[in-house]
Sequence to fold (202 residues):
Amino acid sequence: MSAAYRDYSLDGPESRAAVDKGLASAQWYVPHIERKTLRRLTRRDDYHALRDTGILLSVLLVAGYASCTLWQLGRYGPFSLAFWVYCTFYTSSGDSRWHECGHGTAFRTRWMNDVLYEVASFMVFRPSRVWRFSHARHHTDTDIVGRDPEIDPRPISMWNLCLAFFNYDGIKAGCAKLWAHAGGALLDSEKTYVPASEHAAV
Fold:
């Protein structure tokens, strides 16, 4: 017997049901943390973020240059290792920097967060402005079916899980979004969380 899929669309019946049940924009539990402790835990500075970004770019430049050089020399074994290092740092660091800079927590200076956020969005193939609102909704309605645009639908398809290793669905969805945005339109799902005042900017 095949498992039934719920409707995970953001403009479908599950979304309306979540609102009716009071799950949308619900009040989350907030633990008590002393103000002094919270201030220490959330302290930011530009030095550490700049240092880490410099290290990352250096690794990418060295691994990228080594990959090109080794390929041209026909040394395919060492090339594979250098290219693996380049790809691993490019994708994993791109996503983590996209996330932290999107929240404004990597640098103390806002424009530095914004610049690296735009670069990281390009690295992970995400439209930067739309994803700011998508991620805000994700944190507001985390794992609420019909409300969370970043939820993983259940049941999980093993085939899609394998394809996720190559980001196949992410790139496919990203292309559809880019074409729509370039044509002056938003997807229906995006209209549920991107404010009307931001549509033209997208």
Summary: The radius of gyration is 20 Å.
